[in-house]
Amino acid sequence: MQRLHADGMEQGNGTEVVEFVLLGLAQTQEVQFFLFILFLIFYSLVLPANILIILTIQRDRRLGSPMYFFLANLAFLDICYCSITPPRMLVDFFSQHKAISYRACMAQLFFLHFLGGAEIFLLISMAFDRYVAICKPLHYTTVVNRGVCWALVVAAWTGGFTHSIIQVILIIRLPFCGPNQLDNFFCDVTQVIELACTDTYQLEFVIFINNSLVILVSFFLLLISYGALLVRLRAGSSLGKSKAASTCVTHIIIVFVMFSPAIYIYCRPFCSFPMDKVVAVFHTVVFPLVNPMIYTLRNREILSAMNRLMHKHKLWRGK
C-alpha cells in the first residue's frame, strides 16, 4: 500500500517522486506581487499584438507572399510557446505550495523543446525563402510555392517533435527518489536531470550533443547564410535590394534574440549559474512574444495592413 508524503514522494516498496516543487523567481511577497503586475501587463499587451499580426496577414491579400506566411506561423508558434510557462508562473506568484506533478513536468518539458525546436527549423525555412527571393528571383514563385511552404512548415514541426521526444524519452527513464525542488519557475532538462538518483554524466553528454546539434549548428548556419546574402546585396543600390537587405538584417536580429539565451542555457555543462533565472525569463516569456513585433516594426507593409484592418473594423462597428 502506497501513501503520498507531503514532500511529494510515494512510500511503499520504494520511494518515488510524484511532484516537483518550484522555488519560483522570488521569495518575498512584495517582489512576487511586483513581478506579477509586470508580467501580466506585458503578457496582456504583447500577446494580443501577436494575434493581430496573424489576423492581418490572413485577411490582407497584399501579404500573400511566402515571407508573410512564415511570419504568421512564427507568431503562432510564439503564442503557443508562451502559453506553456507564463500562465502557470502568474498563478504560482500567489501560491504557497508551488508544485507541479511529475507528468505535468514532463509535458511542460516536452512542449518547451517541441515548440522551441520547431521555431528554430522555421527560421531555417525563412532563410531558405530569402535565399531564393534574392539569388533566384526569376524562379521564386515556382520554387517557393504554397505547397513548398506548407511542406517546410510541416518539416519544422516534425523536426521540433523529433528533437523534443528524444530528450523526453531519455529523461523519463531516470529514477527520481531524492530531493524534488527545482530552483526555477518551470520544468526543464537542465534542472530535472540534476535530481535523478543515478549517475547522469553520459546522459547529460547525449542531451548536450542533441541540443548543440540543433541550436549551435542552426545558429551558425543562419548567420552564414544571411551574412552571404548581405554581401551579395551590398553592391546593389536599388530600392528592392535595400528592402531585401533590411529584411535580412531583421532576420539576423531575430536569430541573435532567440539563440543567445538558448545557447546560454543548453550549450554548457548542466550546473547552476546566478543569471539562469533571468535568462530563462527572457527565453520563455519576453523574447518569444517580442520576435514577431520586431518584424512588424521594421516592415511598412504589415503596419499599413494593420492600419487598414483597424480602419475597416472601426467602420464595421460604426455601422
TrEMBL record:
Protein name per Swiss-Prot or TrEMBL: Olfactory receptor
Main location per the UniProt record: membrane
A GO term, aspect molecular function: G protein-coupled receptor activity
Gene: OR4N2
Annotated membrane topology: Multi-pass membrane protein
Location in the cell: Cell membrane; Membrane
Regions that span the bilayer: 33-55, 67-86, 106-128, 148-172, 213-233, 245-266, 278-297
Keyword Cell membrane found: yes
Keyword set, alphabetical order: Cell membrane, G-protein coupled receptor, Membrane, Olfaction, Receptor, Sensory transduction, Transducer, Transmembrane, Transmembrane helix
One cellular component (GO) term of this entry: plasma membrane
